[in-house]
Amino acid sequence: MKHFLEIEYKSLLNEEEYKELKEQFSAFSSVVQINTYFDTEDRSLYHQNISLRIRQISDEFILTIKHPSGEHVQEFNAVLSDNKLSTLIHHPLIEKYIFPHISREIAILGALTTFRVTIPYRQGILCLDQNDYLNQTDYEIEYELSEGYNNDYEGFQLFLYQHGIDEKKAKGKFFRFIQALDNDNEYVCLP
């Protein structure tokens, strides 16, 4: 299990900004991530600003729990054997960090697919993301600081300025997914 304080800055991009950056950084490799999100039917985690997902990259499944910690986010990660709900609900991280906050009625909400290009930058990495979910697409740039660094907002601002991008602050993918899901009034609840 890994545990760390996630410090990142993000901005939504329009499609043109995304395409320009993707072309500029085309030498960097990309990866496909499938994020399967979980919550209770009444969105108990969402309302507490806690996100719960299993991220699949190739054949690897990573359980991630994120919850607020001051201005930043505490993140807990563990490798799983699959992305099944039955595997998730019996994991010790869920017992320790999720069930004290909610009922045990966790459901699969759905998936968000991210096409990510990762670029080394200053004190961490830039992640150029195209996110497809619930019949929509959004684009964003994230600057994730490496462990041990606790601030480089000016570095993020510098990157945006150098590329002629106005910052458009955004909530995390989980929260955007939930908002889109609830606007569509669709809900997948598996036993």
In words, what does this structure look like?
This protein is α+β, with helices and mostly antiparallel strands and 191 residues long. It has a single domain (2-182), classed as Hypothetical Protein Pfu-838710-001, CATH 2.40.320. The chain contains six helices and nine strands, in the order ββαβαβββααβββαα. The protein has helices at residues 15-24, 44-47, 85-89, 92-97, 153-162, 173-184; strands spanning 2-6, 8-13, 30-39, 51-57, 60-69, 72-80, 107-121, 124-133, 136-145. A nine-stranded antiparallel sheet has the order 1-6-5-4-3-7-8-9-2. β5 (60-69) and β6 form a beta hairpin.
Mean pLDDT, as a whole number? 90
- The CATH superfamily appears as Hypothetical Protein Pfu-838710-001
Predict the CATH topology: Hypothetical Protein Pfu-838710-001
Count up the helices: 6
- Number-wise, the strands total 9
User: Can you tell me the overall shape?
Assistant: globular
Class by SSE composition:
alpha+beta
User: What is the number of independent domains?
Assistant: 1
Distance between the termini: 27 Å
Largest sheet: 9 strands, antiparallel
In N-to-C order, the SSE pattern is EEHEHEEEHHEEEHH
| CATH second-level architecture | Beta Barrel
CATH class identity? Mainly Beta
Uncertain ranges:
185-191
Strand content: 35-45%
Question: What portion of residues is helical?
Answer: 10-25%
Strand arrangement within the widest β-sheet reads 1-6-5-4-3-7-8-9-2
Radius of gyration: 17 Å
